[in-house]
Structures are given as structure tokens and as C-alpha cells.
Task: structure prediction
Amino acid sequence: APGDKLGASSELLRLAMGVSQHHDAVSGTSKQHVADDYARRLAAGQTECEKLTTRGLKMKSVYTGTLQPCRLLNESYCGVTEDGNRSLTIVVYNARVTARIEYIRIPLTHPHYHAFNLVTQQYMPIEYLRVSEATQALNPESLPLEAVFRAELPPLASPRTN
Result:
């Protein structure tokens, strides 16, 4: 796959998205081994795009440590936050061209964290919520708590004007 200046490419994901838009993939009528191939291609493309995104975010962020994506965040599980014995730095970004406000939910094992904005150098209010029984029933690996905080997100890039 051709690389860009950052050494990673979105080409693999672009190709996988093209293949996965085939009628068998969209309708779910493909054989299992074909569906597994679609999933394998998309996962490989996502991994390559994560490298590209991570490098780009490091260029725009004040954080200098290692960034790790959390793919299963929508399932109340994150391997990065599973180990409750370390500090965490969470980089939240807004890929849109307009500012927005989001409530960020991070699955955790215990309520002993603080939310600190590296840009403003201020602590932010944080609330801890127990993960619902329904979520735990759907995903037994879900972590017991979610930290919730409000994030005011400026645009990652400004819109171009000609």
C-alpha cells in the first residue's frame, strides 16, 4: 500500500471498504469464510489507519507519551484501562471542522482517577457511573465503572477558504 509522509496509509482500509460493499457483505448472505475474510480485511485496514491517525494526533497534541487506541469502547471495555494501577492520559479529538461538546465515557476498574485538561491546565469535573446490569449481561468482560466528563472540543483543523 502506498504510504504518505507519515509512513502509514489509508489505502488498505479504502480497498477493504470497497470489497465489503459487495452485495453479499451488505446483505449478510455470504458464506462464513467469506464474511471472515471481509472482517479480516477491515481489521487490517483499521489497524493501518490507526497508525496514521495516531501519528497525526501526536503532531497536534501536547501529549508526548505513547498513544494506544481503544477499539472496544462502545462495549464498556478497554484493555488500556483494565489495569487500574497506572495513570492514564486520554487524548480526545474532534475530526469535524466546527467545535462541539461531547460527554466522554471511559470504562474503568475503580473511581480513583482525575480528569485534567492538558491544554487549559485545569482539572475537570468527573462522575463515576456503575455499568448497567444489562451491559454486563451482554458483555461479561465489561469493566464495572465508567468515568464521564464533559469535553469542549475545538476542531482538529480549520476549514479552508479560497
Observations:
- The chain has a mean pLDDT of 81.
- Helices lie at 11-20, 23-27, 32-60, 79-82, 133-138.
